[in-house]
Amino acid sequence: MVNHIKLHKKITLFIGLGLVIIIAVVGFAVSNRSSSTAPKISEGKARIDTIAVSVENDGVVTADKAVLNFSQSGTLKILNVKVGDSVQAGDVLAELDSSKLIAQIDQAQSTYSANLEKAKRLAPGGEEIMLKQRTSEAARSALTSEQNIYNDVVNKYGMASSQELAEAAKLRKAEADIASADAQLALTNASRVDAQYVANASYASLQIARTAVYDTKIVAPFTGIITSINGVVGQTLGSSQTGSIGFISIADPESAVLVSSFDEEDIAKIKVDQIIKAEFTSLSATLDGRVAYVSPIAKIDQNGTASYEVRSIFAANNNPVLDGMGATIQFITKQVEKAVIVPNRAVKLVGGKSIVSYYDENHSVAHKTIITGFTDGKSVAVVSGLGAGDQYLITE
Question: 297, exposed or middle or buried, with CB in 10 Å at 0-12, 13-18, 19+?
């Protein structure tokens, strides 16, 4: 009997403990379920910022650059720059030895000067042509005098007289002198054309010699930075030696632009002077700029797809960007500056009105009606009902 009572007590104790465990487990599950379904509320404050809508595209930096070579062969005599130097447009960067070419210039100059002087003497008003003209005029004057003398002799002594025959011979000589003078004048005029041609040809030779000397110099085509040099003083150089590599390379970082390509659907959203924001992950920086050029002509690829080139420039100079860097660009299609903005998730539409929740002085959730404006899909501008620094709640 005693054993039976002990056994009954043990069973009762086990059942009690089991119920306690079951209640605890159920309570924990219910508590856990309640905590997992309870709304999560986060706080924030409205802020003043710019809100914008944009078209995103990639872009690559490209800058003015040039590969410079000598146009003729020669020995490098002067090298005025080194890699990294800043140069101005027109600066002489390097020179070949031009001593032989300068001697050729001197010879060409002497030849041209002599030929030009001859052409001037033969030109109208020139010394030689005026001499021939005076000779022709003197021959005509002499013929007139001889004609008068001949007429007087004929009147006095008659035809076929010895005096008339003598004067007739002089008259024929005066006529022959005119013909000779006119022939000399004509020959001189003809020589003038030839002399002018020779003078022009020698001037051309002089210019070629001068150009040859000029071509011994490499001049900076624009303001920029020297990026490479392939040669040393004393080395024989020429266009054939340096080839496509170039003797000197120069780039202009200030000319850097962002080049993007748009399809025919998005290009309609891009306009000149449109604001851009270019994010360079390599620089951990976002740079402002604007669209400078939109190509009116499409490039058609082999599949027949049209694309349009867009070039954008940076708002500030001395940018750290380098040629070939890539960026993700936001082309701003619309924006509102200095707007009071909150996240879209903080605004609820209740009864056709926009509502924002906040904690009142009792830390109870309260609501206020606001008027919203422009949105970028993530944030919204508050036109009225909320100011900068005002609290809002986001319930998730």
Answer: exposed
